[in-house]
Amino acid sequence: MRLGFDVGGTKTDGVVVAPSGTIIARLRRPTGWGAEAVVATITGMAAELAEAVGGGVDAGALASTFRSVGVGMPGQVAPHTAMVTHAVNLGIEAIDLERTVGDALGVPVRAENDVKAAALGAYALHGATDAGATGSMAFLNLGTGIAAGFVQDGQLWRGARGTAGEVGHISVDPNGPLCKCGQRGCIEAFCGGGAIAERWGRDVPLPVLDVFDAADAGDARALALRAGLAHGVAAAIRVIVLATDVETVMLGGGVTALGTRMLSLVRDDLAAGAAASPFLSSLRLAERVELLPTGSPAAALGAALVGATATEQEAVAHG
Amino acid sequence: MRLGFDVGGTKTDGVVVAPSGTIIARLRRPTGWGAEAVVATITGMAAELAEAVGGGVDAGALASTFRSVGVGMPGQVAPHTAMVTHAVNLGIEAIDLERTVGDALGVPVRAENDVKAAALGAYALHGATDAGATGSMAFLNLGTGIAAGFVQDGQLWRGARGTAGEVGHISVDPNGPLCKCGQRGCIEAFCGGGAIAERWGRDVPLPVLDVFDAADAGDARALALRAGLAHGVAAAIRVIVLATDVETVMLGGGVTALGTRMLSLVRDDLAAGAAASPFLSSLRLAERVELLPTGSPAAALGAALVGATATEQEAVAHG
Q1: What residue segments make up the domains of chain B, in order of their start?
Q2: pTM score, two decimals?
Q3: Is A239 within 8 Å of B170 when comparing Cβ atoms?
Q4: Helices B193-200 & B220-244 angle (0-180, nearest 10)
Q5: pLDDT digits (tens, 9 = 90+) for B127-155
Q6: Which pLDDT belongs to residue B131?
Q7: Beta strand B2-7 with A289-291: parallel, antiparallel or unpaired?
Q8: CA–CA separation, B211 and A169 (whole Å)
Q9: CATH number of B118-291
Q10: Closest Cα of chain B to A63: distance in Å?
Q11: Do B165 and A277 touch (CB under 8 A)?
Q12: What pLDDT, on the 0 to 100 scale, is given for residue A131?
């Protein structure tokens, strides 16, 4: 069995994955703040998950129960390692999860950027339910920021320098809103949860939901922000498919909690583009977009798949 | 030895490639119009190239001299076949190059879209001169239209439906010029040779060169068109690197005959973007752009590499 964790800013999602690829146990717990607390969150959940699947909870027993641990985290991850840097949402500047989580559990650890882990997990879940149809997928994360992960034939496309999928900072309007990256009209400036919250300006727990509710009530500023969000997401989908021609664009991230309230507006924007352009129409973009179900374990599952590469690397090194 | 042809609207470029990958003979001839004339162009050049490398010119001798033929052509090509459709610049609606060129020469044939063939050839040439530095490359074709081909670890990324690299029809300005695809502000509407020629409106043999010369002389409309061209090319480079993170963007196609007169303006646009955005600056885009030398045999060489897959396929089929 293998462990996978998706460490988010507020919650951590942990799963136990059987050799068949099936998730056989799952837990969610609040994430601690800072490196030590994040490590304690993961090791504590590992013990709880071991109990849940009938294993022992001391280090020796964990090592015989679990072959690997994979951790998805917001931040930069050196490929094929457990080194994470700039996980600012978690209060972590740099952490070696092999020397912390790995040493505590006695199990090899690999890390991955959370969006890339979610892409890998979403691909696995999609393939499991719709076998054969999925040769390539982009996972478009709609959260505070906007970024995508690409999976082709089950493998992540990382790019040459690890920045593949930074579609949030492609400008689609030279007169659009100023983005915190310094450009104008970035996709993220239109549809990033952070950018919308800042422009909306109300101190509420769920600003994008608040914008949608206010738009429904006819508020002009909310209507403009909501239209911008739909346009930004549609632009990201057009950019992704026109550049990479992935078969499926899977939408995930916090903003997708709005479900069809958001997706229907995105589809409307794609349909308007297709109506104006026979070329766009031929790409059937609206049919290629799917919504990751709320509460999907995609990111934790993807992390477990990344973790599995740890034992593959060891087999090569020692084999 | 293997043959590779790049069949363009006016000229066809043909090469003989040794098993080492070296080009040992090269010819350029005018391209005939329509399916029969295109086939005659290729078979006639095959005989000339056979003579150039000391082989016989009848069908039996050609089959013992050349193991495969690869043909790059503007149009749509079904992957791993010799079926080409919509090669409108050549007056061809559909052609099976295996049943025409292949039967005439007695050699297996494979076809590829010309931009994808050029991408493969540019990657091979780049790797040969700068080994190790090239893990991934986009070839950005600046011709009548704008499209890119992607190569990763020596393999073409075709996408799920064969439309990967259609970056020309990504809109980067909702108030930009109308594109013939129906959208506004497409990259191709800014920097496609066809779009520029149409807006410039002068009946000259080389409209983009004419625009550059007129801009140098201070013509306001030419200055605007030239700035738009540089901006469109820079936008394509940003889209390509932000989405796919290829290490190198190689510029090719007819418009690159302008050489550094064009490239310096594109670099200026990239530098202006980088000055406004620390994030863009960190991607070092200007350093990742290169110009394919004028007269490079990249497309014909790439076609020969595609042709080589014909004998690999046969080896698998016949065991």
Answers
A1: 2-114+297-318, 118-291
A2: 0.93
A3: yes
A4: 160
A5: 755 545 458 999 999 999 999 999 988 88
A6: 47
A7: unpaired
A8: 31
A9: 3.30.420.40
A10: 37
A11: no
A12: 47
CA nearest to A154, candidates A112, A126, A123, A118: A123
Q: Which residues of chain A have pLDDT under 70?
A: 59, 128-134, 313-319
**Can you give the pLDDT at residue A312?**
72
Q: Which of A134, A279, A282, A288 is the mutation pick for testing B, counting most B CBs within 10 A?
A: A279
**Chain A residues touching B165 at Cβ < 8 A:** 243, 245
Q: What is the pLDDT of residue A57?
A: 74
**CATH (one of 3.40.50.300, 3.40.50.2300, 3.30.420.40, 3.40.50.12780) for B2-114+297-318:** 3.30.420.40
Q: How many CA atoms lie within 13 A of B298 on its CB side?
A: 29
Contact (CB<8Å) A245/B273: no
In the numeric block, which tokens belong to residue B83? 């079926």
- Interface A:B, Cβ pairs < 8 A: 132
Look up residue A191 and give its DSSP letter: H
ipTM of the complex: 0.91
Task: Return residues 124-183 of A near B (CB < 8 Å).
Answer: 135-136, 148, 150, 152, 157-167, 169-175, 179, 181-183
Which of A245, A247, A281 has the most B C-beta neighbours within 10 Å, making it the best mutation to test the interface with B? A245
Residues in chain A closer than 8 A to B164 (CB atoms): 243-245
Give kind and range of the element (H or E) at residue A147.
strand A146-152
- Here the tokens at position A122 are 């979403």
